[in-house]
C-alpha cells in the first residue's frame, strides 16, 4: 500500500493543514494514522470537556499549538452562570508535566487564572503565542508573568477578555533585551498604561505588525508610537480626543502617511469624529475596518472615511451608519466579504437606523459577500428573498431582529419564506442565526435545504417539536445547535439519540424539555454529558414523580470520551 | 430581629428631647421620631405618625431603627428637633445632619436579613402600621415594595437579549457615558458590574443602568443573594432619597449584618449610598461587594460633595 517511506508521506502531510483534512487522512489506514499523529503540529479542541489532556498527549505527542474552547456560545450573553467551568489550569499543568514543546496557546471562553499564566510562562521555553478570546479570571499580574518569562514571545493577543486591571507595570516587565514582539493587543484593558514602557517596547520591536491599544492611550502617545512603527499592518487606536489642528494631531497625520503597510484599522474607543480624516491617506489600502466600538463617530465622518476604502474586505460597524451609509458601502466596497452591523441602542428603543433596505443594498452591491451579522428592528420576506437571489454565496448568515417574535412588518406574516429562500439559495451555508416571527415551517426548509449547515442559533421560534425534528433529521452536518425560548420538548430531544454523537453540542434553555426527558436521554446515551444548569433553589429537581413535569431551565449536552467532568459546580447536574 | 420591646426601649433612651412633638397618646413615652419611620415621607408633613396610634401603643414604625440607601423613603424631619444621632461615628456628619435635616435612610435597603427581607412590604404586613404605610407611602415607594424585583417598566429586559456580548455592551456604555455632554444623548446601553458577597461561592453581575435608584438596586441584589444571607435587623424599608447614616453602621455591626460596598475609580472601597445615584454613583462604581458588617468598619463614606444640592428642605 505504501510505496513511499514514512518521511515522504510525512512531508506530504505537512501541506495538509486543515483539522478536518488531517482527521480524514488519519482514518485511511494504521500507518497513516501513526504518521499523522506524530506529525500533527496544531491541535484544535472545540470543547475542552470532550477529551482530557492525558488523552491528547497520548494521541499527539509532538504538537506545538493548542486551541481550546470552553463555555458554550450562549455564555457570551450571560446565559451560563459564573463558575460553570472551562478551567484551563488542568490543561496547562498536564502539558507542563509532559515534554511537549508548546509554542502557541489559543483559548476561547475559558477561565484563566494568574496562576495558570505564571505556570504557562515558566514551563515552555519556546512559547511564542498567546491568544485569549472572551476569557476571564485573570489580572494584569498574569500578563506580567508572561512578559517577564517568555523570552521568545511573539504574540500577546487579548480579545474582549475580562481582565482585572491592577494598573500595574506589566508592560515594563518585558526585558530590555526582548525584541521579538509581533502582535500586541491589549485593547480590552480598562486601566492606565505605562506609556513610557509601551513606547520603548514598540521602539525596540522591529517585527511588530499588529498593535491594538486600549482606551487609556492618548493621541500624542499614538503619534509617537506610529512614528516608531511605520511597518505596522494592523492598528487599534485607543483614545483620539484632541483638537483638530493640535500639534499631536499634525504629528499623527505625518506618522500615518508613512504607514504604507497599514491594512487593518480598529478601536476608536474614545474618539472625536473629526479624527478620522487623519486616516484618509491610508484608506485606499485598508482591507479590514472595525469601527463597531466607535460610538461617537457617526454620520458624515463615517461615510467620508468609507468612501476612500475601496479595497475593504471586512467591515464591522454600528447601526448608526444607517441605510444611507450602507448604500455608500455597497457602492464603494466591491471587495467586501464580511459585514457586521451592531446595535447601538441596546434597550430596543426603536432608534435603529438600519432596516431591510440596508441589507438589500449591500447584497446588491457586494458580490463577494459571504458573511453577515446584521442587527435591525424590522425585516420583510421580500427583502430576504432578494438578498438570497443577490448573494447565493453566503457561508454565514446571522440576522438578529431585536424584538422577539416580530413578523414581516409589511405583510405581518412570519419570516419563514424569507429564511427559506436564504437556505435554498445558499448551498454552502455553514452558519445560520434566525430571528423574528417563525413557525415550524422555517425549520422544514432548513432541514430540507441547509445540507452543509454546521451551526444553527434559534431564539423565540417554532411552534412544536416538529420544528426541532426537521432540523435534527435534515441537517446531516450539524455540529452546534443552540436554542432558547422555543417550544421544543422531550419528544424532539429524544427522537434520535445517536444524532448527538455526530454533533459537538446542543444547548436548550427556556424550552419545554423536562428533567425526566433529560434523565432518559442520559441513560440512553452514556457517551454524552447531559448537563442541567439550575441556578434556582426552588426547583426541587430531585423529587421523583415530578420529573416528567419539571421543566429544565438550561440544558447543555455534548459528546465526550472522558465521561462526567469532575469540576462541575453544585448548580450543574450531570447525568 | 429586634423585638418590639427592644425597639421601644432603644428609642426611648434617646428620646429625651423636650422639643419632640410626637407624643404618644399613652402619655408615657416620648417617641423621638427622627428616623421618620412612618409614612411621613412628604416633605411638608411635620406631624409624626405616632400620634395616630392607638392609645398606649407606640407605632412600631416610629420606634423601629431604620437604615436605608438613598432612594429610600425620605423622612421629613422637624427642624426644631434636636437631631443627635444614636452612635455618631463621624461628628462632623452630625452637624450636617441636623442642620440640613438630612433624612436617615431606610434600614432594610442595606441589610440582608435572614429569610424575612425586611422591606416595606414586610413591614406593611404588620397590622399595627399597615394602614399608615398603605395610605401615606408615595407611589414610587409602593411600586418598589410591591414589585421589588422588576426593573423600570420601560426596560423590560430579557436575559441575554439582544445577543450582544457583555464586553461590547460595557465598552459602548462607557464610551457613551463619557460623551454625554458632547452629544446631548442620554447614556445608552448597559453597565454591568460584578457583585460579590462574602461567603458566596460565585459572583453575579448586575446592570446598574436598569435601576433608577439605590432602592431598586438593593432589592435586586437581595433577590440574587437571598440564599447566602444571615443576620437580622429590623427595618422599615422606606424608600426616598436619603443619605447614609453612619450611626446605623454600629447597629449593623452588632447584629453581624451585611453592608453593600463598592469599589470606585480610584480603587477605594466605599459604602454604598452616599452619593447621588444618577450623577455620581453610576459613574464611579466599578464593582459591588456585599461585605460582612464587621469588615466594613472604617469604611469611609464618600465625600459629600454634592449633598448640598440634593438637600431637601
TrEMBL record, chain A:
Residues 4-45 form the F-box domain. The keyword Transmembrane helix does not apply. Its main location: nucleus. It is found in: Nucleus. It comes from the Eukaryota. The keyword Transferase does not apply. Keywords: Auxin signaling pathway, Developmental protein, Nucleus, Ubl conjugation pathway. InterPro entries: COI1_F-box, F-box_dom, Leu-rich_rpt, Leu-rich_rpt_Cys-con_subtyp, LRR_dom_sf, Transp_inhibit. GO terms for biological process: auxin-activated signaling pathway; pollen maturation; SCF-dependent proteasomal ubiquitin-dependent protein catabolic process. One of its GO terms (molecular function) is auxin binding. Pathway: Protein modification; protein ubiquitination. GO terms for cellular component: nucleus; SCF ubiquitin ligase complex. It holds the Pfam family LRR_6. PANTHER family: F-BOX/TPR REPEAT PROTEIN POF3, PROTEIN AUXIN SIGNALING F-BOX 2. This is F-box domain-containing protein.
Automatic annotation (TrEMBL), chain B:
Belongs to the Aux/IAA family. Aux/IAA proteins are short-lived transcriptional factors that function as repressors of early auxin response genes at low auxin concentrations. Homodimers and heterodimers. It is found in: Nucleus. Keywords: Auxin signaling pathway, Nucleus, Repressor, Transcription, Transcription regulation. This is Auxin-responsive protein. One of its GO terms (cellular component) is nucleus. The keyword rRNA-binding does not apply. Residues 190-293 form the PB1 domain. SUPFAM superfamilies: CAD & PB1 domains. It comes from Brassica campestris. Residues 1-22 are annotated as: Disordered. PANTHER family: AUXIN-RESPONSIVE PROTEIN, AUXIN-RESPONSIVE PROTEIN IAA17.
